[in-house]
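Standup, Tuesday
Yesterday: got the pipeline producing structure tokens again.
Today: sanity-check two examples.
Blockers: none.

Example 1:
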Amino acid sequence: MDYGEKPIRGVINVIMGGNEEWAKSNSKRKAYFGSVRNVKSPLKKPHPVQGWQVKFDKRDEDDILDTYSKDPLVVKTLTASFQVKRLLVDIRSDCIMAGLKERFQAFVNNRWLVFVAAMWMQSFTGPGYIFGSISPVIKSSLNYNQRQLSKLGVAKDLGGSVGFIAGGLCEILPIWGVLLIGALQNLIGYSSLWLIVTGKVPVFPLWAMCVLIFVGHNGETYFNTAALVSCVQNFPKSRGPVVGILKGFAALSGAILTQIYTMINFPDQASLIFMVAVGPTMVVFALMFIIRPVGGHKEVRPSDGLSFTVVYSVCLLLAAYLMAIMLLEDLVSVSHNLITIFTLILFVPLFIPIVLSFCEGHRDPAEEVLLPKPYQHDAGNPEQDTREHEVVSSEFKDENSEEVDSLVVPEGQKRIAQLQAKLFQATAEGAVRLKNRKGPHRGEDFTLMQALIKADFWLIMFSLLLGSGSGLTVIDNLGQMSQSLGYDNTHIFVSMICIWNFIGRVGGGFISEIIVRYRLK
């Protein structure tokens, strides 16, 4: 075959990336080598993905070797060139796989993915808020009076309040281990209650029933603790929004589970207890390895404000939608197919925040440590960095003005840098001594023993103890209150109180963050 005026050198140049003009104009070469896009020499530019664009297969190689079979030197040169080509193709494939692996690792270790997964888990793991819906069937099936039912409700509330065990286990176990214990407790407690209510096993004494519901509801403390610990460590500068949103979704789970129960259309009300036992456990098993503290950038970024605004918008949209469909189903006779559509649409807002996982860029933790402090803390406020540098420099110039002025300019700058380093070291040593003497301050991390000796801890505890009792009493007895007023379907009232509880918690986290962040400005 004829490859033009310069057959040997032309073929070699095309393979190795040279003589681009000849390669583009020769029609016979294109028949063997296909189109050439941005042919560059891999020897001059060693990046295999961008530098190798010549495409031809094994048959083309054999045809070329057959053409020049009479010249051993050419055959040897072409064979080596083909081997280089195949090597570069293999390297390109390895680079693509390495890039995909890196992207996957960055996605899995993204703190927004952990936050969204925690939101999903909290949306289905708050069974304590629908006790008002299952208490009527417990009362009728076990022939309990109101006093016995109230004792069962107290045991449930105690199970949801004893969370120090979960907090202690978070110090010695991984987060997935804490979630596993909580899921098993939820499954054992509520599934045993369902078996007793449906008559599949003999009725236990009242104290044993209290133990079962205590164990089942205590599993919720493991879910809350794991979600809060992971997300607060991932967002240490945005604790208010994180805690408010996660606790809000825990309250909203009552309305979500009720809507799912309405869609499935179980034959009896006792099936709601079965769904409470199985549903949260399945969700936790699916997300237990995603919810965890992750490395990387944990300080405030300029994009965090917009991201939390998106989450708040989703919260308001979800609450409004749930309220609308609950009222519609109660006031109008709605077909089961339409209820199914409403419930499926309910999951759409829950998946919107997953977009945040793709919006935040990934940075290696080692690179974060090497960054200067202004880039670690507030990359969007260069004026503050300039002011801090000017203040430090002016202090040293004031204290040592004569000494510094007597030096030449480079030597003076060097002297200022040395004095700055001494000041920073002295400040760090003083901070360590102060911390060892007085313990952590507000906003820092506390151990359990450090918190027990703080007045703030006991003030918060007694405030919750005195303030949340009335709300829990109403939630636990909402089913009996609704039936006493002549309403057969108590689910609508339980769902409404869950929705308003959700709005109050999310709003509380938002307002508290504003007060804490801007009160000193």
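Example 2:
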Amino acid sequence: MQVLFGIQLTNYLLFALLVLVIHVLVNQKYVGHLVAFGAYGCILFAGMLGVEHHLLIYASDPGWTYSDMRGFGPFMKPWLWFKFYWAAWAFLLAVVATLFWVRSQDVTLPARLRWAQHRLAQHRLAALLALVLVVAAGGGIFYHTNVLNEYASKADRRQMRADYERRYGSYEQAPRPALVRTELQVEIYPDEQAADIRGSYQLVNRSQVAIDSIHLSTIPHLDISDISFDRATTPLLADEKLGYRIYGLQNRLEPGDSVQMRFAVRIAARGFTNGGAEAAVVANGTHITSDWLPIIGYHRDRRLGDAREREMQGLPPRRPRPSLYDVAARQEARHAELMDFEAVVGTTKDQIAVAPGALRRTWTRGDRRYFHYATQAPIQNGYAFFSARYAVREAQWVPQLNSSQAAAPSIPGAGSTANPVTIQIFYHPAHADNVARMVKSAQASLHYYSQEFGPYPYRHFRVLERPGPGRGMHAEPMTIDYQEGYSLMNPRPGGLDLPYHIMAHEVAHQWWGFQLAPAAVEGAGLLVESTATYSAMQVVEQTLGYEHLLRYLSQMRQEYEVPRSRAAPPLLRANDAFMNYRKGPSRSSRCGITLEKIGSTMPSGGCCTPILPVRPCPPRLICTGSCRRPRPTRCATCCMTSSRPTPFGNSRRSKLRPSKPSPAPGR
């Protein structure tokens, strides 16, 4: 009711008044309809016409979202400002409509202008009031969007990315130290929608050459301060607009040497932007990612990726990812570097704060509650902090590993892998329907993957809910987060249990993506997403049954059979989501079931070699060799069509209808 009569009705009334004014001014029924449709089209496609600021698009606003966890959150303030501004404009338009209202048989333009001039004396005060309201509201919005914050159109943002690449792209291959340890003190203030982060990085030169400067990439215009090092440095560059800094070392960092960097970051909303309000820190459901913190070196993801945009900016063509046969790119492992992590997170007394690692202790100081986390095994540099009024469900999973797996931890420093793993589900108290399903899926997935691909290297596994309408999940080391849309999925009895499969897929990323981190080249998605999807299919088959697996394959086939271009890249060189999430798993399922039929002892049965229980894995694609081992013709055809260009039409004859596999020896 709040949305219908409070938000949507406002939009309807504003547009209805615009249409009324158009009909009064045009005074021709069908021409008025045509002009009204034209005005609606201009509003709807204003962005395509180059108009993006909501101050210039009638009745527009930055948008809003509602969730059970945070309510309307910080989004109502900018919405109210813009609606008040456009209501003032509507008031002014109503005055204009009154001035030109037809009240006689003489409807010529000179006559209407005379009547408008005569009526203006009676409505001068209303017109002046409307004009003052428009200027006052517009000035307030402009102050928030263009003074407190920097307004940037899509063209401006493209230009900034192009400038970033032109100015600092030469530093992409510059030697940089590796991040080996992160220590953070995080203070979250949900009621103030702010957070203070003070931290330190331990950097080690693992290259073969001395390093004479340290490069940092930060979010443009981020409030970052107190950057210092434990050795003498000289600031050489501080580009706040593009977010790039260079610090020169007075004494070079020799191979094997280390340096400690300290910094402070302030996350706080400065009013609102043309795109709305910042929602990282909210009253209930804070979600702060590591993207807010400084990144060591040149940030590749800021480059323009679209070929047409690069051409317009005068940049040379660039592949979305380096070639599979680029030897240097295959040896690059920056994205897979591991580090130790420790953090103390403070929040309000009624909330629970969560970070990577084991919870060492928790305490209360005044109206603040603190949590101390530390990892027991290294993790990749991608993590998040959460704070909300959570309910918690705990369960245990006890590994059943053979002696060789227990003796060889998959990540250096992981220690023993035979200890029980604590599964924790942090969820909104009103969203408890899928919690038991999530626990069962996590337990079954951890059991299957640890048996088939190697041990789970951590002693904790956490799943956390955060505000948002999305139905998917996102995996990080020992952590999975999901939005509220996932909580509200309600599979019907006897139907497809999609929440169970999604959880199994994300748990698989603790192996595919974190323990096995492929090089950032073409086809990396095959080793991360395709194998995770196929692994989840195996868990679903073992726990929910073969018929349930067929339901999932049937749903996946609906998208797979949508007509598309006949030209397709080889699967092992694919970069798009369809190839990674649909074609890759379907090929794996066809190959895997054939392998089981011929009695393969390969547990996962797919085209890729299982993860050895030894870390680190070589950061390169390893599927091709295992695909081309001597096998029967049917399996060889399946695998080779995965790694060679084939038109889509050639594979339509082979639907995803695998016959039920017979048990393989040793399973």
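Quick observation on example 2: Confidence is low (pLDDT under 50) at residues 592-667. Residues 1-147 form one domain.
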